[in-house]
Amino acid sequence: MNKKIIEATGLTRHFRVLERREGLSGAFKDLFSRNYRTVKAVDGVSFSVDRGEILGLIGPNGAGKSTTIKLLTGVLKPTAGGVTVDGFVPFSDRRRYVANIGVVLGQRSQLWWNLPVIESFKVLKEIYRVPDAVYERNLKLFNDLVDLKRHYHTPVRKLSLGQKSICDIAASFLHDPALIFLDEPTIGLDVSVKKNVRKIIRTLNRELGTTIIITTHDTGDIGNLCPRLILIDKGTIVYDGPTARFNKAFGSFRTLHLDMSDMGEDERGALEGRLAGCFPCREKISVREEGDGWVTLTLNQDEVPLLDVLNHCLKTCRVKDVKIEDISLEEVIIKSYEGALA
Amino acid sequence: MRRYAAIVRNMFLESLNFRADFIFMVLGNLVGVFLAYYLWRAVYAGSGGTLHGLGFLQAFAYVAVSGCIFTMIETWAEWDLAMSISRGDIVLRLHLPLDLHLTTLVESLGIFLTRLVFTGVPFLLLIIFAFGVPVAAGINLIFFTVSLFFSFLISFNIDFIVGVTAFSFESVLGLKLIKDAVILFLSGAVIPLAFFPEALRPVLMVLPFQAMYYTPVNLLLGEKSIPESVLMLLIQAGWIAAFMTAGRLFHRKILGKLTVSGG
Amino acid sequence: MVKRLFYYWRIYRKLTSQHIKSRMSFRADFLISVLGMLALNVSGFLSLLVLFNTIPSLGGWDYYEMLFLYGFFGLAIAPVAILFDKFWSLWSDVIWGNFINCCFKPLNTMFYYLSDTVDLKSLGSLAVSVAVFVYALPHLRVSWTALKVVCLVLMYLGSVFSFIGIRTAVSATAFWMGRNVSVMNFFSLKVEQFVRYPLTIFGKPFQIVFVFVIPYAFVAYMPVNHLLHSPDVSPEWFLTPLVGAAVFGIGCLVWSLGVRRYNGTGT
Q1: Cβ–Cβ contact B118 with C under 8 A
Q2: CA Rg, chain B, in Å?
Q3: Which residues in chain C (221-260) have CB-CB distances under 8 A to chain A?
Q4: What pLDDT is recorded for position A273?
Q5: Would C247 disulfide with which of A103, A330, C165, C191, CB 3.0-4.6 Å?
Q6: This prediction's pTM
């Protein structure tokens, strides 16, 4: 058996998108003529995935994540380039190929709304022709993990969001697929449920050896689940490598949001130079105007103590409000282009 | 008033947003008119020119104009209301400082007016001029316009009652089907009332349904004198008042029950 | 092939039985909506009754012939009404993206999409159609032979598949236009109200369209006309089953083009 389960080379997908006009008169004009533009959703992406791996696929909204997933699941035909998954060309062999994979789309349940959970599982058993032994073994595995039995006879529509997510994920493992795609598996869940969901994914991956690809916004998912990640922006791969290296490069970065709307634009503009003077470091502190009076500083705690910078700002500027956050995906992408991961 | 105007505008925009959808609605009416024309021509083929005192063009006018009125006043208000009740987002509306009956009415009115402008008027003109339906150009046109608006109000208030039942009853679609079937049949929208058996006609004239279709078409064709026309409008207004009162009372009663049971 | 059919049948049976079970738990809902469909169809029948009270025949068809045609049409569209009901919500599943789940299953997308819904209320229409059909049957001037009965069944199947094909193609427009309620309504509320009358009463352009473009003629008029108005079984009787197969094929083709187009829009 090939060690690589996914091999993608130069995978590309373009779309034609309708541009709607605004307002009443725009709606009238749309009745008679329409404008289209081409969007390069995925643009020459190459990567491979090993069997049994958990891979994180991250990127800001509209970066091309879900298009990539659609290409990998055989829903979309690539405009150019190609991909093979477990020996299949996804789009051409769709029906045989999808028998071998599982897909969970965050908010769009594959379970039947009005059916009790166990009945949904029974239908899936028929659809994927799961042998009784495998079916029983997997149900037992789920029960040991999360006590799914409690929900067997509850119609799916009556489950909470968290319970639904867990059932959906369990359902995707039912037929022992070689590969599972999880699209935003923890979106909208509260912290304890998130933890539970991650535990299930990790355990099932270990027990069943399933390859898993996760797309997410949640850096918690990445840190806790995926040893490797691919960062996508504007349809191209920005980073593909160990999560550890990624965290080492960005883990100590913080963004500091300061409300300086009481100050003049010139004063705010001078901030970057002044900070560079006071805190000399290899990578200077980046300062970005948000346009509404807020200023965003991005700094590396390994080089500059966050509190010193904050103190300096509070002393020298009129600051109305402060927020501290982990580095945002957008900042990561900017830094990556600047060579932070090289 | 401004906020209600905003709702109307939104509904208007929304219905324009779907271009092909809109074109098909127009096309549907066009084909419907033509097919009805042929059907009634076949009905009159063996007759000596009139059946039950109606000439072919008159019978056709009753059916075609009724069809046209149906597409204007059928705004699915009961369905939208029931959906928003069963989904639970009705709570959002109940919390707004707006009256539910009035908000629903205004939304429905937005749809009605859009349909009036884009399908109603063009099709009335088509029916009258392309097929040569004899319509006098006098005060009857004003009576017709008022009567059309009254038809919408009767229809809407019946819809409101049906929609509100969704608070305590889950089969609104079933009720809607029954309602539409009964109304269309008994109002003379499918078969002109003149064709109904002699014994049945007085009964049909007392029912509210003829006020929705028979009255406006009758007024359009201008066959009644002015006092008679005014009387017909007054009867329509009476039905509006009756259904509106019933709807509002029913709505209040059902809401009251809900609060008591804590639903 | 047979194995595959059984595989699909097992899934279908499982899903529909579950669906019916869950619908039946809303008994009032079920009864009222069946009554609604009954009312709708009975009023259609009553309209004919009122009409034929005045005229002896319509386009050369007498009362019972007309009822037979009416009943046959109802029977031919019943399978679609009962089993293909989910077509009505296709547009919203396309717009909100839920349709994509159908692409992840190792099954035919149309089958999978339709498999979890049965429209029980249309049993009301079916009941009226059966009643009208049976009521008209003994009054027909047809000399029945075994061959004619077999042909009638074959023609019926052709009609059913013609209608499935038409409705599939019509519904699939949702993949291109999103909200297609008006298209659905155009056919089901307008056109289909008329094609249950003798085709010859409509103008030439409409006759051509209903035979060659959107073959509604084969859903009822053609087969019933052959049965009632040509005394012996002739080769043209087999036109209906053939057209049924072809139209069904075209419907499926339009559907799969639609699915491809839907997936290509990046929603």
Answers
A1: no
A2: 19
A3: 260
A4: 81
A5: C165
A6: 0.85
